[in-house]
Amino acid sequence: MIAGFLLARAGIDVVVLEKHADFLRDFRGDTIHPSTLEVMHELGILDEFLLRPHQEVPQIGGQFEDVTVTVGDFSHLPTRCKFIALMPQWDFLNFIAEKAKCYPHFHLRMESAVNELIEENGRIAGVRGKTPQGALEVRADLTVGADGRHSIIRTKAGLKVIDLGAPIDVLWMRLSRDPTDPPQTLGRFKPGKILVTLNRGDYWQCAYVIPKGGLDTIRQKGLPEFREDIARVAPLLGGRTNELRSWDDIKLLTVAVDRLSQWWRSGLLCIGDSAHAMSPIGGVGINLAIQDAVATANLLAQELSRGAVSDDLLRQVQRRREFPTRMTQAFQIFAHKRFLGPALSKAKKRSRLPLPIQLLQRFPILRRIPARLIGLGFRPEHVRSPERQFGLPR
Fold first, then answer.
1. What is the crossing angle of helices 2-9 and 285-304, to 10°?
2. What CATH number matches the domain at 2-164+256-375, 3.50.50.60, 1.10.443.10, 1.10.10.60, 3.10.20.590?
3. How confident is residue 393, by pLDDT bands cut at 50, 70 and 90?
4. What is the pTM of this model?
C-alpha cells in the first residue's frame, strides 16, 4: 500500500490488488514505528494520522519475575515522534488508502486474488487472478510482490528461499483491559513462560510465546490449563482469562525467519515479508516492509515514469535493503538462541537477571541502543521520490 501510494504520488499508474473484501485481519502487526511516522511527516500526513485513535508507547519494558526493567527508551531518537504508535493495521491501511486515492493514478481493487504470473520472453509482464465477477488480468511494467511470508508471487516466480529457522511460535489473543491496569507495554518472563502484553486502550493484545510446533501439546492439556498459564505469567489478567471461551479465540502465528537469495526477476520485485519473513521480536517486520517500499519508490519512480525498469535497478533495491534485513535477522536469531529459547526451557526461577538486562537496569543510557534498533532500524529510509502536482486536495 505504501509503495503504491508513493509511486502514484510520483505520477505512476498503480493497481494495488487485495484478495479480501476489507483489511480486517485480526492480530496483524499493529506497531507503527518512529521511522514510519517520520515517513508520514515527510509526506505531510502525520498530523492527520495522529488524530486517529491510537496509543503511544514511549518506552518498552520487560518484567522478569517481579522486577520490571525499561528495555528501550525512544525519547532520544532524532525523529518527530519519539514513540511507537499502536493502531489496528486495518485502520492504518484504510488511512493510507484514503490518502493514496487523492492521486488519480492510484487504483485499489479489493477481492482480487492473484494466482498466476504472466511471463513473456523471460520477463514478468503482470498477473492473473480471480474476482467475484470473474477472471482478472493486469499487465504492468513492474509487478511488486508484497503478499507476505506465504507469498504466492515469490512461489510462482520460483525464487529461492533461505530458511534461517525459528525455535518459537506465538499464540495471539485479546483480553479486556481495566482502566486501573498499569499502562506499560511489557514482555513478561516467568520460568518456562513468556507473555507480551500490548496496551490497546480497552483491551490487551497478548502474545504468548511457545516452542516451535508446541500448540498440539498445549491443546492436549486443555483450555483451563492454558488460562492458568496466562494468569501465572500475568496475575492481573487472572480474572479475565475466562474471556478465552474456546481455542477459536486464540490464533497461531507460525514464526518464520527467512529471506530470498534474489528478490527480483526481470519485471518483478519482492519486498516486505515476501522478500524476508521476520520474527515478531520488536515488531519490526512492518517497519522493514515500509522501509522497503520507500526505497523502491526512491530508486524506481523516475525510470518507471518512462516504462519498464532495468534489472540493474531491481538489483539496486535488493542491495540497499539487504543489509538492514540481514542485520535485523541476525539480531533476531541471536535473541531466539540466547534469550527466548533458554527462557522457554528453564522451569526454575532465575537467581539473578540476565546480564544484558542487568546492564540496562544499571546504565539507563544503554536503553537507547534497543530503542534505535527497534524504532529506526539499521538503515531508515526517507522519501526521495518526486511528487507530481495534480491540483487535487490532499
1. 30
2. 3.50.50.60
3. very low
4. 0.91
